[in-house]
Amino acid sequence: MRIAALVCLAALSSAGAETNLERGKRIVDEAVAALGGERFLQMRDRVESGRAYSFYREQLSGLSIAKIYTRYLIRPEPPVPDFVGVRERQVFGKKEDNGVLFADGQGYEITFRGARPLPENLLERFKESTLRNVFYILRQRLGEPGMAFDSRGTDVVENQPVEIVDISDLDNRTVTVYFNSTTKLPAKQVTYRRDPLSKLRVEEVTRFSKYRNVGGVMWPYDIQRERDGEKIYQMYSDSVAIDNDLKDDLFTLPSNVKILKKPK
Prior knowledge:
- The chain is 21% helix and 46% strand.
- It has helices spanning 2-16, 20-35, 38-41, 120-132, 134-141, and strands at 45-56, 59-72, 86-92, 98-103, 106-111, 114-117, 148-157, 160-168, 174-180, 186-194, 201-214, 217-227, 230-242.
- Strand 11 (201-214) and strand 12 form a beta hairpin.
């Protein structure tokens, strides 16, 4: 009788245990709640202002006053794979007269000379970076067909306890996200892609820290990126604002702007 009871208890315990996919989905749901819940999911736009640093071979190669304007588009329902539902404008300098615009599958480098269409490889990189960004995934891609959240368990990474989740889609994109076990917020993400020219696998790592409450949404003020182990970019925000009612003209080229020749 004792053995039978133990077997029965073990069966009940096993039946009630989470699968890796269930645990992964729960961790993701907790992250959305920690980021602000419905406030985060309904965020329409965002403006990040601060300093952008670029690096080459671990050495500082550039520093700019930067402002990044982001506006989310209404996604199709049900969600559609590969939908890039965001417009983004990055401007540099106090006059904001130099920058880059990404909108509706097009991109331009904007200077005092005019607007030069970006080459296809940069447009593809923006698309891939967007679709693999954990905040974009949580804001725009939840519920997308084929999206899976697979828990890889817990660990201590870079001096913080984390829950590790592989997020995968129908196109075999996989982003490994490290969620802080205490705050539930994304601390780091790792993804791999193929370089279009060399065809070699490239590792891209992004770290998120110094979160602050911005109108009910938790947002990282320090974002750092690495490629194949080398630091390439850091954005340190002095201020972040959400739901500023950004207008279409911010993401549209003026009718009188000179369109320059697209680089080969």
